[in-house]
Amino acid sequence: MKKILSILLIHIFAFNGIVFAQEPLKGSVTEYDQYQQLENELFTGRVETLDRKDIIRMTVSQVLDSSFSVEGDEFFAEVTSDVYGDKGIIIPKGTVAHGRLESTTEAGRLGRAATLELSFDYLVTPDGREIPIEGSMTTKMHPVAEVSKIVAQDVGYTVAGGAIGGLAALNWLGIGAAIASQGYTLAGGAAVGGVVGLGMSLTRKGNNVLIAPGDEIKVKIKTQVDLPVYKEEALKQEEILYDGLTVSINNVKHEKDPFGEANTITLTVLISNMSDKTLSGFDMSLVNDYNVKFSPSIFGNTRLMFKQIKPGDKLIEDVSFAVDNINRNFWLTFYDRKNGDVITKVSVDNAYRKIPDKVKKKNDKVRSSNARKNYKKDDDFMDMDF
Fold first, then answer.
1. In this predicted structure, what is the pLDDT of residue 132?
2. Does domain 236-368 have CATH number 1.20.120?
3. Of 307, 295, 298, which Cα lies nearest the Cα of 333?
4. What is the CATH number of domain 46-234?
């Protein structure tokens, strides 16, 4: 209470033009000290430039549809891949972008598709910083590519597999930030995430354009922005370890399922079991940041799925998981078969930052191979002529 009264008195005297010079108490921690401590925990002290050549991968938080979305509509998108400079990460995965529907055109004659043009004006990082940017994305194809039916553009969107999307709660050093939480957008409006309604088709065959949560868009940066470089430790996801049990992810590959969809994550897993537990693939799941569990895929390597991992065993195997959205955060999780408790939980994102750039480029290529030759959706059943 005395502290509150002191603050009020300072404000009153300051308002009346009276200035007091007060020496800070020895050993006290000022707001500046706290800020400086946070800066030291998060950043390396180096600065990189986000410039016009950079492309940021994102997924939108809501459906954008040329048949009902209008110019000026606001939306949010989530960065799906770390953005690197020469010295490290400058925009981490999970950063939120504010976007606006800049323009939309209706479908024309001779099968000409409708278009959507999006603009972006700022980012909100997981540590709460707001970064002004200028970015854009369009579904309009280059005229040469459109006529020749060749998708030659770099900036567009790809389907990331599945219709589940939305903004995950942002995390800062494992502590929930108040930027986006409990399923609500930054604007405090409608909840995001969850499955898009079954009545809405996500295939592209008609004349209208649709971008849905789970689709990955590629946003082109128009301006230069200087940004601090994050420390690797500051971006690590929380993990759960068990005494004597070592589970390491040595490789992460993005692959297509037998139906041609890029929705499979294949992990190379090293397990050293010096614990008192016996494990098997039936005790294992890949869990995303919405706590959705995915069992090992029967279309991948099944040796680990059917293997007993007894105390004293050491092995290295590949295991695949077909997921709803390959861009989410995932943890490889083992459970106690007796009570269902989590024994160990290893972050795929932590491991991904350590894999070779060559593998990351192959993964990007696989995800981009899902790019559509157009941006059309199925015509609404109610609008069809009979």
1. 93
2. no
3. 295
4. 2.40.128.260
Name which of 72-76, 215-219, 293-297, 339-343 the model is least confident about: 215-219
- CA proximity to 155, closest of 53, 72, 251: 53
- Which of 273, 274, 272, 256 lies closest to 264 in space, CA to CA? 256
What is the Cα–Cα distance from 155 to 74, expressed in whole angstroms? 20
- How, if at all, do strands 74-79 and 43-50 pair? unpaired
pLDDT at 373: 40
Q: Report in angstroms the alpha-carbon separations of 193 from 69, 76, 200, 311.
A: 18, 12, 15, 40
Give yes or no for a contact between 132 and 225, defined as CB atoms under 8 angstroms apart.
Answer: yes
Amino acid found at 380: D
pTM, two decimals, is 0.71
Count Cα atoms within 13 angstroms, Cβ side, for 102: 15
From CA 61, how far away is CA 166, in angstroms rounded? 4
Q: Which two tokens stand for residue 226?
A: 């200087």
Neighbouring C-alpha atoms within 13 Å toward the C-beta of 177: 20
- Which residue spans within 67-197 are E strands per DSSP? 74-79, 83-85, 88-91, 96-105, 115-124, 130-138, 157-159, 164-165, 171-172, 175-176, 194-195
Q: Residue 256 burial (CB < 10 Å; 0-12/13-18/19+)? A: middle
Region 99-119 average pLDDT: 80
CA distances from 84 to 81, 232, 237, 359 (A): 9, 12, 18, 15
Task: Give the Cα separation of 188 and 76 in Å (integer).
Answer: 12
Give residue 343's identity as a one-letter amino acid code.
Answer: I
Determine contact, residues 117/104, Cβ cutoff 8 Å.
yes
The residue extents of the domains of the chain are 46-234, 236-368
Higher pLDDT, residue 158 or 314? 314
Span 136-170, pLDDT tens digits:
998 875 443 343 333 333 333 333 332 222 333 33
